[in-house]
Amino acid sequence: MKTDLMFINKTLLATVIALCLLVTGVISNLAFANTANNDYVEPIKVKTENSMVVKDKSLEGSKINLSIDQSGSVKFGGAKFISLSGSNVSVTISGLPLTLVTNSNTQIIGVTSIGNINSDDILSGKGIIDQSTGTITLSLLRDESQSSVMITDLEKQIQSLLDQLRKLQAQFNSIR
């Protein structure tokens, strides 16, 4: 009997710890999503020896930036979605047209697939530029326009996990 109780206690403790880690991960993703809407108070263009960075603020207040370093690593934000053709996404950043390429390694956040990106959605991401074609192969693509919808869904999921955690804690306390 005592062995069974110890097993139940260990199982409940492991479950509580797993739920805590899951909630922490969801909260950190939520915090990352919320930082995407901060405004920049920086120069419009900065050129360094190793990279060119272009930053601007649109009329709507969303951050616009494009950073390409000497190795070809690209980070961008505030890109306006124009069109989709297969795995190629066309966007503009302050009027500069860019072609973004997704593949099976591209992490897509904010929509379930690139086919769900809507006209005029604002995108951010990172990848590597092909210096011969100018296309950017993405490792990350985030639809910032959908982030408020996702935040609401995440808040509901977090609340559900917290409710489950409270129930497990109550069960754990009742068998102690």
Q: Could you characterize what this model shows?
A:
This protein has about 180 residues and is of the alpha+beta class. The protein folds into two domains: about 1-35 and about 150-175; about 45-145, Copper binding periplasmic protein CusF (OB fold (Dihydrolipoamide Acetyltransferase, E2P), Beta Barrel). Helices cover about 35% and strands about 35% of the residues. The chain contains two helices and nine strands, in the order H-E-E-E-E-E-E-E-E-E-H. The chain has helices at about 1-35, 145-175, and strands at about 45, 50-55, 65-70, 75-85, 90-95, 95-100, 105-110, 120-130, 135-145. Strands 4-5-6-9-8 form a five-stranded mixed β-barrel. Helix 1 packs antiparallel against helix 2. The chain is elongated. The model is unreliable at about 30-50 and about 50-60 (pLDDT under 50).
Write the layout of secondary structure elements.
Elements lengths: L1 H34 L9 E3 L3 E7 L5 E7 L3 E13 L2 E6 L2 E6 L5 E3 L12 E8 L6 E8 L3 H29 L1
Parallel strand pairs: 6-9, 7-9
Antiparallel strand pairs: 1-2, 2-3, 3-4, 4-5, 4-8, 5-6, 8-9
Helix pairs in contact: 1-2
Quick take:
The chain is α+β, with helices and mostly antiparallel strands and 176 residues long. Helix content is 36%, strand content 35%. The chain has helices spanning 2-35, 147-175, and strands at 45-47, 51-57, 63-69, 73-85, 88-93, 96-101, 107-109, 122-129, 136-143.
Low-confidence stretches: 30-49, 51-61
Report on the biggest sheet: 5 strands, mixed, barrel
* Mean pLDDT value: 75
- Highest CATH level, the class of the largest domain: Mainly Beta
**Cα-atom Rg, whole angstroms?**
22 Å
Shape: elongated
How many domains make up the coordinates? 2
CATH topology of the largest domain: OB fold (Dihydrolipoamide Acetyltransferase, E2P)
Percent in strands: 25-35%
Helix and strand sequence: HEEEEEEEEEH
Instruction: Give the termini separation.
Output: 13 Å
* Count of DSSP-assigned helices: 2
Q: So, CATH architecture of the largest domain?
A: Beta Barrel
**Helix proportion of residues, in percent?**
25-40%
In which order are the strands of the major sheet placed?
4-5-6-9-8
Q: What is the fourth-level CATH superfamily of the largest domain?
A: Copper binding periplasmic protein CusF
State the secondary-structure class.
alpha+beta
Number of strands: 9
Q: Kindly report the oligomeric state of this protein.
A: single chain
